[in-house]
Write a structure and sequence with these properties.
The complex is a heterodimer.
Chain A lengths: L3 E14 L8 E14 L3 E5 L6 H8 L7 E6 L2 E2 L9 H6 E4 L13 H12 L4 H14 L16 H13 L5 E5 L7 H18 L2 E6 L2 H7 L2 E6 L2 E7 H6 L4 H9 L48 E3 L6 E3 L1 H4 L1
Parallel strand pairs in A: 3-8, 3-9, 6-7, 7-8
Antiparallel strand pairs in A: 1-2, 1-4, 4-5, 9-10, 10-12, 11-12
Chain B lengths: L3 E14 L2 E14 L3 E5 L6 H9 L8 E9 L2 E2 L5 H7 L4 E4 L13 H13 L3 H14 L5 H4 L9 H13 L5 E5 L7 H18 L2 E6 L2 H7 L2 E6 L2 E7 H6 L4 H8 L49 E3 L3 E3 L14
Parallel strand pairs in B: 3-8, 3-9, 6-7, 7-8
Antiparallel strand pairs in B: 1-2, 1-4, 4-5, 9-10, 10-12, 11-12
The chains are: A alpha/beta, B alpha/beta.
C-alpha cells in the first residue's frame, strides 16, 4: 500500500479586491473549504471552468500563495503557514510546470542555465556536476545536448514545454504540480507531452497534481479527479466513477458539453443556462443552484454537505444525494 | 446537385519579411455548397486563419497579398474587386466572427451602436428601424435583457455574451456565408456548448453556409458536413465528415485523429506525430509532411504529391494512394 504524499484539509483563500477610493473592499473567495489527498505515484486532477479556483488551489499547495485557513500536509509535514525560509526543503520536493511555455522561461538565459537554476539554489554541486545532470535530464525529456546552449525563443511550444519539464525534474521531486501544461499546445504536440508525463511517472514514481479544463485530457492522465465549481470541489472520486457514473448535476453537464471527435456519436446534451456567477458575489446555498437543471427549493438556502456515494472514495456535494 | 457558393482555387498568399517573399498558402483548393458547414482544420501555422483572411481581403496593415489563384463567391471573383466593392460584400454577404470576443468588440462603443453600424450601412435603415432590428437580433441569439444590453459596454458582458453579440452582429444582414474563426476557443466548455448549439440552430433556420475554422476535432465532428484538412499551407485531405473520422486517408489526418484523447478511450498511450511543423521559410522538398510521416517512401522526399480524387469524392494529397488515382490509372 502506497502512502499519502499530499493531504489537503479545508483550505481557504480569499483575495481583497479594492473598489474605488471610498468603496468598501470586496472579498473574492477563490478557494472555499477544499480537501483532497493524493497517494504517492498517482495523479489527482482538478478540473473546472475558468475562475473555479483550480489554479489557486495549485498555488496554495506549492505555497506560492498562503492559505487563510486549513492544512496542507506534504510527506508528513504541515506547511500551510510556514515562512519562506522554512519552505526551502519542501520546495525541493514540490515543483511546478506552468501553462504558458512562452512566458515561463527566461528569454535571456540559455536553456542550460534555466534547467540548472534549481541546482544552484538547492545544492552545492560543482559546475561540472551540474552540467552533467543537465545533459542527463535533457535526454530524459526527449531533447539532446546540443539544445543546451540555445535560448528559449529558438524552440517551438512543445520543445519549450519539455524544457519546463526538465527544470521541474532536475531536483527529482516527489510531487509535480502541472497547471494546464498542455492547453497552449497543438493536439499532435499535446499528445507527445502527455505521453512524456506518463512515462516519467512510471519511471520515477512521481505524483502529479494536474490542473486542467480539458476533460478528455484529464480522463487520459488521472487516477483520481476533483471537479471544482466556484471555489469548492463539488464531486471527487476515482476516474472511472466520475466518467461512467457522475452524480453531481454539474459534472453531468460538464461531461455532456465536451464535443466528441466522432460524428456517429449522438448524445443527449445538457445545456446549462446562463454564465458562471461572479465569485465576488457567489449565490447562497449550493453554489451551482443558479444554473442547475434539477435545482430544488432547499438548494437556494442551504449549502449541501459532502456525502459519500456507494463506491469507495467517491464524494458528492449535492442535496439530491443527501435526501 | 447542390450549388456552389464559394470556390477557392489555387489560392496563393505571400508575406514579405526582410524583403524576402515567403509563401504561406500554396495553392489552396476547396469549395462550399449552399447551406453546408465546412470545417477547416489543422494545427497552428497551417494557414487556416490566413485562408479566411484571404477570402475576406483583410490584409490592411500587413505585408500579405494574394499572388495567385482566385476566390469565386456566387460566381464573382473576390480577388478582382476593389476596396469599395469588397466593403459592400463584407458584413452583408460574407460575415465573420473571430476567436477573441474580448478584443473584437470596440470597448468604447455601446453594444447597440456597434450592432447598428453594419445594419445601417448595408440595409439602408434609419436609426429607429436599425435599433429595432438590433434588439431583435439580440433576442434571436438568446440574450434575454436585449433592451438593456444595447445600452451597455462590452466590458459589462461575460465572454459567452460577447460572443453572442458578435454572432448577432455577423448575422444581422443575413449573410450567405459565415466565416467563424475558432469561435469558441476562448470560452469554457459549458458556454461553448451553448454557442455551438446556437450556431447550429441559426444555420438551419437561415440555410446559411458556414466555414468553421478550428483545431478541435470534437467540434468538427459535431458541426460539420465536410472537412478540409490543412498542413503547411496546403490542403492535404478533404472528405465527408463521416468518411474522414471512420477512415482517415492521409497519414497526417490519421496522426491528428489518433493524438486526440477521447472520453471513454482506454488507450494507455496516445498516438503522436513526431517532430514539429516545418518553418514556412525552410520547407522540406517533396511532401511537406514527409519528415514527420510514419509511412514515408523514397518518392515522398523528392516530389510533392498532388491532390488525388479517391472513392466517395474524397481528395487526398499523398503518394500512398497514387495507384488508386481514378483517371490516370493505367
Amino acid at each position: 500500500m502506497s502512502n499519502k504524499l499530499l493531504k489537503v484539509t479545508g483550505i481557504r483563500k480569499s483575495f481583497d479586491i479594492p473598489s474605488g477610493v471610498f468603496g468598501r473592499k470586496k472579498t473574492l473567495k477563490a478557494v472555499n473549504d477544499v480537501s483532497f489527498e493524493i497517494m504517492e505515484g498517482q495523479t489527482f486532477s482538478l478540473v473546472g471552468e475558468s475562475g473555479c479556483g483550480k489554479s489557486s488551489t495549485g498555488r496554495l499547495v506549492s505555497r506560492l500563495l498562503t492559505p487563510s485557513d486549513g492544512e496542507i500536509w506534504i510527506d508528513g509535514e504541515e506547511i500551510s503557514q510556514k515562512k519562506e525560509s522554512q519552505l526551502k526543503k519542501m520546495r525541493q520536493k514540490v515543483q511546478m510546470i506552468f501553462q504558458d511555455p512562452y512566458a515561463s522561461l527566461n528569454p535571456r538565459m540559455k536553456v542550460r542555465d534555466i534547467i540548472a537554476e534549481p541546482l544552484l539554489i538547492h545544492t552545492k554541486l560543482s559546475k561540472l556536476e551540474q552540467q552533467r545532470l543537465v545533459s542527463e535530464i535533457l535526454k530524459v525529456v526527449g531533447l539532446n545536448e546540443s539544445h543546451a546552449d540555445r535560448y528559449a525563443h529558438e524552440f517551438s511550444g512543445g520543445q519549450r514545454q519539455r524544457i519546463g519539464i526538465a527544470r521541474a525534474l532536475i531536483m527529482k521531486p516527489r510531487l509535480i504540480i502541472a497547471d494546464e501544461p498542455v492547453s497552449a499546445l497543438d493536439v499532435s504536440i499535446q499528445s507527445q507531452i502527455l505521453n512524456l508525463l506518463k512515462d516519467l511517472q512510471s519511471e520515477y514514481n512521481i505524483t502529479y497534481l494536474f490542473i486542467s479544463h480539458d476533460l478528455s485530457v484529464v480522463e487520459h492522465i488521472s487516477d483520481y479527479i476533483g471537479v471544482m465549481y466556484l471555489g469548492t470541489i463539488v464531486e471527487s472520486g476515482p476516474k472511472d466513477a466520475i466518467f461512467s457514473d457522475p452524480q453531481h448535476p454539474y459534472t453531468k453537464a460538464l461531461l455532456s458539453s465536451v464535443p466528441v471527435p466522432d460524428p456517429t456519436f449522438r448524445k443527449e446534451r445538457i445545456i446549462l443556462k446562463g454564465d458562471l456567477p461572479s465569485p465576488m458575489n457567489p449565490p447562497t446555498g449550493c453554489p451551482f443552484h443558479t444554473r442547475c437543471p434539477v435545482s430544488m427549493e432547499v438548494c437556494k438556502t442551504i449549502e449541501p454537505k459532502v456525502t459519500q456515494v456507494a463506491l469507495d472514495n467517491h464524494f458528492v456535494s449535492c442535496h439530491l444525494m443527501s435526501s | 446537385m447542390s450549388e456552389k457558393l464559394l470556390q477557392v482555387e489555387q489560392l496563393q498568399t505571400d508575406f514579405t519579411k526582410d524583403k524576402r517573399k515567403i509563401r504561406i498558402l500554396h495553392g489552396v483548393n476547396f469549395h462550399i455548397n449552399k447551406g453546408e458547414v465546412i470545417g477547416l482544420v489543422g494545427e497552428s501555422g497551417c494557414g487556416k486563419s490566413l485562408t479566411s483572411l484571404s477570402i475576406m481581403g483583410l490584409f490592411k496593415g500587413t505585408s500579405g497579398e494574394i499572388t495567385g489563384g482566385n476566390i469565386r463567391f456566387n460566381g464573382q471573383d473576390l480577388t478582382s474587386l476593389n476596396v469599395n466593392e469588397m466593403r459592400k460584400m463584407r458584413g452583408k454577404q460574407i460575415a465573420m466572427i473571430f476567436q477573441e470576443p474580448m478584443t473584437s468588440l470596440n470597448p468604447v462603443m455601446k453594444i447597440g451602436e456597434q450592432l447598428m453600424e453594419p445594419i445601417r450601412i448595408h440595409l439602408n435603415l434609419n436609426k429607429k428601424q436599425a435599433k429595432e432590428h438590433a434588439v431583435s437580433m439580440l433576442k434571436k441569439v438568446g440574450i434575454a435583457r436585449s433592451d438593456e444590453v444595447i445600452n451597455e459596454y462590452p466590458h459589462q458582458l461575460s465572454g459567452g455574451m460577447r460572443q453572442r453579440v458578435m454572432i448577432a452582429m455577423a448575422m444581422s444582414c443575413n449573410p450567405n456565408l459565415l466565416i467563424a474563426d475558432e469561435p469558441t476557443t476562448a470560452l469554457d466548455v459549458t458556454i461553448q456548448a451553448q454557442i455551438l448549439e446556437l450556431m447550429k440552430q441559426l444555420q438551419q433556420q437561415e440555410n446559411m453556409s458556414i466555414l468553421l475554422i478550428t483545431h478541435d476535432l470534437g467540434i468538427v465532428a459535431e458541426m460539420c458536413d465536410r472537412v478540409v484538412v490543412m498542413y503547411a499551407g496546403r490542403v492535404v485531405e478533404e472528405a465527408d465528415v463521416f468518411d474522414l473520422f471512420e477512415k482517415p486517408k492521409h497519414p497526417y489526418t490519421q496522426g491528428l485523429i489518433g493524438s486526440v484523447p477521447k472520453i471513454g478511450d482506454k488507450r494507455d498511450k496516445l498516438d503522436s506525430i513526431k517532430g514539429n511543423v516545418p518553418d514556412p521559410s525552410d520547407m522540406p522538398i517533396g511532401c511537406k509532411f514527409a519528415p514527420r510521416c510514419t509511412q514515408v517512401m523514397p518518392i515522398c522526399l523528392e516530389k510533392e504529391p498532388t491532390s488525388m480524387m479517391l472513392e466517395n469524392e474524397r481528395l487526398c494529397s499523398c503518394w500512398l494512394y497514387d495507384h488508386e488515382r481514378g483517371e490516370t490509372h493505367v
